[in-house]
Amino acid sequence: MIALQKIALSKIAKNERGAAAVEMALSLPILLTFIFGMMQVGMIMAADAGMQHALGEGARMTTLFPTPSDAAIKAKINAKVFGTHIGSYTVSDPVTTASGTSRYMELHVSYTVTPNFIFFSAPPITFDRRKRVYLSL
Q1: Over the stretch 106-131, which tens digit does the pLDDT of each residue have?
Q2: DSSP of 27-85
Q3: CA 125, CA 89: separation in Å to the nearest integer?
Q4: What is the radius of gyration, based on Cα positions, of the chain?
Q5: Considering only Cβ atoms within 10 Å of each terminal Cβ, which end of the chain, N or C, has fewer?
Q6: Please, what sign has the CA dihedral across residues 10, 11, 17, 18?
Q7: What's the start-to-end Cα distance of the chain, in Å?
Q8: How confident is the model at residue 1 (pLDDT cuts 50, 70, 90)?
Q9: Residue 87 C-beta-side C-alpha neighbours within 13 Å
């Protein structure tokens, strides 16, 4: 009886059928999380580039137009943003400041996103971008 058990165990130990399925079942969640994570990071970086572009367009409008209104600047920034569809995007009111002989306007844009991986969510990430635009006197 013991000899039969040893033979049966040696046959099972040598049998490799199904090993690839087990390896795939163990590695597939890790691989999918990694690929999905790379996609999330790419979308966050695209949103950051979209914020920078919109902020630059708002700064360009501020310097080219003689006296743009705060609402017009915010509208321009909101119209030029791209890639922020997975988070929340806010444009603060521009702040005009006079310092000595110069006047400038502070433009501020923020973007908050919570990266969502397949099996878990990461903590929220907030990007704040500011641009100081000097105005003519």
Answers
A1: 999 999 999 888 888 889 999 999 99
A2: HHHHHHHHHHHHHHHHHHHHHHHHHHHHHHHHHHHHHHSSS--HHHHHHHHHHH--S-T
A3: 12
A4: 28
A5: N
A6: negative
A7: 102
A8: low
A9: 28
Which residues, other chains included, contact 102 with Cβ-Cβ below 8 Å and sequence gap of 6+? 134, 137
Widest CA span in the chain: 102
Put residue 16 in one of left, alpha, beta given phi > 0 → left and psi -120 to 50 → alpha: alpha
In the three-class reduction of DSSP (H, G, I as helix; E, B as strand; rest coil), residue 111 is classed as strand
Question: Apex CA 91: angle with CA 86 and CA 96, to 5°?
Answer: 165
* Res 28: pLDDT: 93
| Distance, CA of 75 to CA of 68 (rounded, Å) | 11
Q: Domain extents for the chain?
A: 14-135
CA 68 to chain centre: 31
Rounded CA separation 135/25 (Å)? 61
